[in-house]
Amino acid sequence: AQYQVWLFSSFESAGKQFSYFTNNLLSEFAYVGLLLSLIGIFIAFKRLKKIAIFLLITFVFTVLYSINYDINDIDAYFLLAYISLSFFSVFCFAELLKNFSKKKFSFRIKPAYFFIIPILILGFNFSKVDQSNIHIFEDYTKAILDEVEKNALIFTYQWDYFVSPAYYFQFVEDYRKDVCIIDKELLRRSWYYLQTQNNYPDVVDGIKGEINAFLDAIKPFERNENFDPNLLENIYRKILTNLFVTNVHERECYIAPELVQNEMRTGEFTLPEGFYLIPEGMLFRVVRENKYYAYDYPNHKIRTTGRKNMYIEQIQTMIPMMYLNRALYEIQYKNIKEAKKYIDKIQKEYPEYKINSEILKFVD
Questions:
Q1: Which of 99, 122, 157, 243 has the fewest C-beta atoms under 10 angstroms from its C-beta?
Q2: What is the share, in percent, of the chain residues with pLDDT greater than 70?
Q3: Which of 130, 132, 134 is nearest to 303 (CA)?
Q4: How far is CA 288 from the centre of its chain?
Q5: Predicted model pTM
Q6: Beta bridge mates, 279
Q7: CA gap 30, 13 in Å, rounded
Q8: Degrees (nearest 5) of the Cα angle 286, 362, 313?
Q9: In this structure, are residues 178 and 218 in contact, taking their beta carbons and an 8 Å threshold?
Q10: Which of 322, 332, 240, 330 minimizes the C-alpha distance to 283?
Q11: How confident is the model at residue 124 (pLDDT cuts 50, 70, 90)?
């Protein structure tokens, strides 16, 4: 119910998702696999009609429901449709094997025939789905976790390429579990407060009053009843601000760049008076004095091998942007040699990232 705002939003959205599904069918099955599935539909209706109807209903309604969900990472929602088609291909496969068994083929030919189609499909798809040399999400997440102080608090909403992988490393591998990551957007969900309370109770101890008020205000929204959106937004913003205020004196606090670029510029999130931001690695650290803070030059290596997608491209833009912010910070305090290190790192590791020529003049 909480995500229903992206459901059945428009015919245009449904058409876009349906086009994506049909265009993606070939990459999922290859020509031979898709052909097997289509033939298998007719064979299934001939041999086992009830199962065929069940699979067809499953396929049709999975597609109809999924195309009406207007999100970017839609692939997983089509899985049941792909599984249904795979079952139909098995009917075709079984029929072919049955016909083969009636012929007097040698024993050697039968296994070869059995494996040739899966091998063809594997060959067609392997390069498209191979993730073995993609390390950027692990490297980027660990780089952020490694560079923050013990018991640090990170404010972010980089769910796709930081928060979700960090959950795995922290709660499965026990990697830097001391670091508390607050997803700013998940603070809008009632379940998130229970999760945070369980994992980091001291972080939310100071805002229990605001949390209780928010949970009361969000109940009618989650029950599809009349609710006050202005009240919800006001309490949410209080939580966001007070969560920071009640922790900044106890923990080192860091703010992710997307929050600085967006929410802080619009005033949705502001620092209390007397606090400042300085760029350190992939994040901005919150400090109490407006002065120069030294920072060890980052020695982490972010591997950028493998295929590209929108999330990888976002990371490859975010990293040099933060290096550039640090270079500008060093230039501000006349530390030209330090600034040049960051500029050189950008030009060497991210040559496609454009740096303003006026900035380059400072480090020449």
A1: 99
A2: 95
A3: 134
A4: 32
A5: 0.79
A6: 284
A7: 26
A8: 60
A9: no
A10: 322
A11: confident
